[in-house]
Specification:
single chain, 266 residues, mainly alpha, 12 helices
Length: 266
């Protein structure tokens, strides 16, 4: 006997159709952009030497795969992920310390705001002197760009928790550490996921900025080299690879968010 279709089944089917429609529109927009780009380059509307074209990028990508491109991708990806993890963990730990101590938060808050407004690229030469002209300088640049935003965003999530719930736990004799672990951290999980999404973009910015300053390998190095010798196809190809890697990293964070929501029953 065929199972009757319920209103819930119809609603879920409608949601799935909506997601498929959005995905198809996104793919169509991307395909249309690539097609118009290729057409404009082929007809001479734009100068393919300056803007490159999808076909030239595909050709350059094929050539790069025979020239250790995976080495450059691996180096940049490792630097980005390492900086992302360090800044997220360290920034979250600092946010926890600031929440636990009101005095510490009030003392350091203006300094954190000032540090956030400081252009990190200006510290590039100092970073090289401090940690050396190597991968550690690139990771340090990534951490500096991400960590202040992490601290401020995570702390903001902590402070947005309902004060009445905190007072209720205090009235029941809960310590501040118990309030943190039993209420604040679970409550702030969606905000923490949002911080991870923000840090994905910032980590890539920091990594490429670091490679601009000092690198002998990596996608940032290829972009610099391509610009110096006017191989703009190489620059555009490296940029496309960066976009793909950033998208994959973002999808990984989105997958974690989906699993967390499923675990929370949302």
């Amino acid at each position: 006997m065929k199972k009757p279709i319920t209103l819930r089944d119809q609603y879920l089917k409608k949601i799935r159709r909506g997601k498929i429609r959005i995905l198809l529109i996104q793919i169509s927009v991307l395909a249309g952009f690539i097609g118009l780009w290729e057409l404009a380059a082929a007809t001479g509307i734009i100068d393919s030497f300056i803007t490159s074209s999808p076909s030239r990028i595909a050709k350059t990508l094929g050539e790069l795969f025979s020239q250790q491109i995976m080495k450059h991708i691996g180096i940049t990806l490792f630097e980005c992920i390492l900086g992302f993890i360090i800044s997220t963990l360290l920034g979250s730990a600092i946010a926890v310390a600031l929440w636990l101590s009101d005095t510490l938060r009030r003392v350091l808050e203006p300094y954190i705001v000032v540090l956030n407004s400081l252009p990190k690229i200006a510290l590039g030469p100092i970073i090289i002197v401090w940690v050396g002209a190597g991968m550690q300088a690139i990771v340090m640049m990534t951490v500096l760009i991400c960590i202040i935003v992490t601290v401020m965003s995570v702390l903001s999530g902590f402070l947005s928790c309902d004060e009445n719930k905190i007072l209720l736990l205090r009235s029941m004799g809960a310590t501040k550490l118990q309030i943190l672990t039993r209420l604040i951290l679970p409550y702030s999980l969606p905000n923490f996921i949002s911080v991870l999404k923000i840090n994905v973009g910032l980590a890539w910015v920091g990594t490429i900025m670091g490679e601009y300053l000092v690198s002998s390998a990596g996608l940032g190095y290829l972009i610099i080299y391509g610009g110096q010798v006017f191989k703009l196809d190489l620059v555009m190809t490296s940029t496309v690879i960066l976009c793909v890697l950033a998208a994959l990293m973002y999808l990984a964070v989105a997958f974690v968010e989906k699993r967390c929501r499923k675990h929370r029953g949302e």
